[in-house]
User: Which sequence fits this backbone?
């Protein structure tokens, strides 16, 4: 009765040394992964190269010639249970890639590893790179060649998904410590070189320290004691683990792990990415498309540039109300830690900078450039990835600002984040409270609302998102009441604004809306601005 009911079994391939007592030994039967011959060149070679990275880790673990890669021979069925296969799959739209396993549930032994890579996904990558550095560099052989960078990404992606098929989970802390695992989701690292955007360091090459640890632990350890010592050594090196449950969803709290982020300080990286975004928007133009393509395609290429900071916004927001939650076993003394108030306040400043008029104003020169017809050609994969227009092909720059603001507010006003802020402030008054965050948002809206169309659109979005958040079922009732009080006071100030004209009329109108429960409920029932899909990149 004193033992757990549930037992968990590691999933791994059968791999046996010919000499179990030797530190290094050949294996009886190596793990072999076959690359789908349907993958066209140069993709096929990139997959062979990337998946082959795992051979280094098995060799370092003392397992000689334990991992091999080959192209699937003609006549071999990729669905045959005897073969591990990396499949190249065609879909209607870009989509996720998967590394799956079929296991023997009695032992956890992997019977078959099956990877699926969507063929259209790389097209999204190339489109982003071309929008950043110019389509004219494609196939040119330079460090910024969009095609060459896309192949770097395919190598990494092949290694990542085969990692799953070997039995390994995601580790989203890897990007915070110098790319120490292919099991993270990597953001393409864009840098400024001599004032110009560069993709020379977009992706890492080869496995990282965490990947070598995984192979040594799962396939090399011969006992629990040996495995435990490996874990101790990994911790001593500073390796850490943040899995899916601490990353997926706006409500997650651990700032040491996020999706598609980069570097160790998420707030500093947000500031860096915002500078990259500024340069990218300044250079964005018709050279984002190859010669001969319809210029209406610029609307699609523009979206991932306009929202290039979307994942770093989520990463920085996790600092706000953040809690570092380590993985530990009973008897260990590793404690969770609340993010210090100085870091939380710095995150709030960076997030508000991204919510500014300057950050959310589409350069005027892009308005005509993004308004070429035709408005649509009935291509579903394109239609779902562009922002709504202002009628036909006419680009809607104010809707772009609204979408950018909504994306940030989704992270800042996530109910569980506000609940954590309330809890942390009650325990340590120096921490920013939910009340303080909402108050600052309202003050921010007041400060920018006089900036013509963009400022008022952002301020309106802030007001509606605050009212929407107040109605969220998961929000603390005390925070909901505080938002009611703050919105009520704001409404009175807005309605008391003297004079007339566009600004005053807007103030009176917003104040009246916030004061009328039924009218506000009706406004909130209308569809929200839909942020175009981002993942996977």
Assistant:
């Amino acid at each position: 009765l004193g033992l757990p009911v549930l037992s968990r079994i590691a999933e791994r391939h059968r791999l046996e040394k010919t000499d179990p007592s030797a530190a290094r030994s050949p294996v009886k039967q190596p793990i072999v992964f076959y690359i789908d011959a349907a993958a066209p060149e140069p993709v096929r070679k990139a997959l062979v190269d990337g998946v082959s990275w795992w051979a280094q880790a098995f060799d370092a673990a003392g397992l000689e010639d334990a991992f091999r890669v080959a192209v699937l021979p003609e006549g071999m069925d990729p669905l045959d249970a005897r073969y591990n296969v990396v499949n190249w799959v065609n879909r209607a739209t870009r989509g996720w890639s998967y590394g799956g396993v079929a296991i023997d549930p009695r032992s956890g032994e992997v019977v078959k590893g099956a990877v699926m890579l969507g063929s259209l996904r790389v097209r999204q990558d190339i489109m982003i790179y071309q929008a950043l550095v110019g389509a004219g560099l494609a196939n040119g052989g330079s460090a910024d060649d969009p095609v060459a960078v896309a192949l770097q990404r395919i190598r990494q992606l092949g290694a990542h998904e085969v990692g799953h098929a070997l039995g390994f989970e995601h580790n989203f802390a890897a990007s915070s410590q110098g790319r120490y695992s292919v099991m993270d989701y990597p953001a393409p690292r864009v840098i400024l070189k001599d004032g110009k955007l560069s993709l020379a360091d977009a992706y890492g090459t080869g496995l990282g320290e965490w990947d070598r640890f995984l192979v040594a632990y799962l396939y090399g350890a011969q006992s629990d004691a040996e495995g435990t010592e490996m874990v101790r050594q990994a911790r001593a090196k500073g390796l850490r683990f943040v899995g899916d449950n601490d990353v997926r969803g706006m409500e997650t709290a651990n700032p040491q792990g996020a999706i598609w982020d980069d570097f160790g300080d998420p707030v500093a990286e947000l500031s860096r990415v915002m500078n990259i975004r500024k340069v990218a928007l300044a250079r964005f133009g018709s050279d984002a498309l190859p010669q001969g393509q319809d210029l209406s395609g610029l609307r699609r290429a523009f979206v991932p540039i306009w929202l290039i900071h979307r994942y770093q916004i989520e990463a920085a927001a996790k600092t706000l109300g953040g809690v570092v939650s380590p993985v530990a076993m009973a008897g260990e003394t590793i404690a969770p830690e609340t993010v210090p108030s100085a870091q939380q306040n710095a995150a709030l400043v960076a997030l508000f900078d991204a919510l500014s008029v300057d950050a959310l104003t589409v350069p005027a020169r892009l308005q005509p450039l993004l308004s070429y017809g035709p408005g649509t050609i009935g291509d579903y994969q394109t239609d779902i990835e562009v922002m709504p227009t202002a009628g036909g092909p006419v680009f809607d720059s104010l809707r772009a600002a609204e979408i950018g603001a909504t994306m940030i507010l989704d992270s800042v006003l996530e109910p569980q984040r506000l609940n954590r802020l309330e809890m942390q402030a009650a325990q340590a008054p120096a921490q920013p409270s939910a009340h303080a965050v909402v108050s600052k948002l309202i003050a921010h809206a007041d400060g920018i609302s006089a900036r013509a169309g963009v400022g008022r659109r952002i301020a309106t979005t802030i007001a509606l998102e605050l009212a929407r958040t107040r109605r969220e079922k998961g929000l603390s009732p005390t925070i909901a009441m505080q938002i009611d009080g703050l919105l009520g006071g704001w409404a009175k100030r807005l309605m008391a604004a003297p004079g007339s004209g566009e600004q005053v009329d807007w103030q009176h109108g917003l104040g009246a809306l916030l004061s009328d429960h039924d009218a506000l409920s009706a406004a909130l029932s209308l569809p929200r601005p839909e942020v175009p899909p981002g993942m996977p990149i």
User: Anything to note?
Assistant: The CA atoms of residues 7 and 106 lie 11 Å apart. The chain has a mean pLDDT of 95. The chain is about 45% helix and 10% strand.
